[in-house]
Structures are given as C-alpha cells and as structure tokens.
Amino acid sequence: xxxxxxxxxxxxxxxxxxxxxxxxxxxxxxxxxxxxxxxxxxxxxxxxxxxxxxxxxxxxxxxxxxxxxxxxxxxxxxxxxxxxxxxxxxxxxxxxxxxxxxxxxxxxxxxxxxxxxxxxxxxxxxxxxxxxxxxxxxxxxxxxxxxxxx
Length: 150
Description:
Layout: E1 12-13, E2 20-21, H1 24-56, E3 60-63, E4 66-69, H2 87-110, H3 115-132
Antiparallel strand pairs: 1-2, 3-4
Helix pairs in contact: 1-2, 1-3
C-alpha cells in the first residue's frame, strides 16, 4: 500500500518497483543519489539560463565598423531559409526537455512521502543553488515559464 502521509522509514520504493530499499546502506545510497541529482539539476538550470542568454543576446560586437559574431556555433542556422531554427535554439529545447524530465522525477520521488527523500531533494536543491546560481555576478533574468518544474 502506498503511503499518503509523510513517514520516516528505511523501506522506500522510489520511482520504480524495482528500486526498493531494504537496508540502511541502500537507503543512505538512495538519499545520496537524490541529493547529488538535485545539485546536478541546479547546475543544469544554471547552464540553461546561461545558454539562453548566449543564444538570444545580440552577440555581436563591432570591430572597425564590422559586426563580429561572438557565438558563431550557437547562431549557425539549421535550415537555410529560416531564422528561427538555429543550433542554439534546438540545443536549448533539448536541454529544457531534460530539465523538465528531471523536475518531474523529483516531483514523483517526493510523492513517495518518505521524509528522508524529501529532505535530501530539498537540501540538494538549496546546495546546488548556493553553488551554481547565487553568485555576486548573477544577472537578473526574466524567465518566460512560471512552471516550477522548468
């Protein structure tokens, strides 16, 4: 039977029926994996924001009156006639899909209602934010998607 309230136990089924913990060692490894993936999620979010800034910025500097592209690989067009299909936009869409999938996996993991899993994910997200997204040189970026998982 699935728990419908938070509980503290070393016996937890996480995401798949084959991923069950039955000892303190397997439970600790599961919590460590949740913690590390949460930090990785914040790293990917940081890369996604930086990638978006690079691919959508003007990215052109003027040198002797000539426009020079600062990010030539991101602005390379995939289809010759379309200005919307460049490598940066496609790569950003792939990265958005990966980040969304990881976010939904976190949601499902927390819905196991295990207190340790909840704490490991929340603390991992906070540590990841501290490491990757809360610098002094942080730029204010308007995010166009208010969804919490993205």
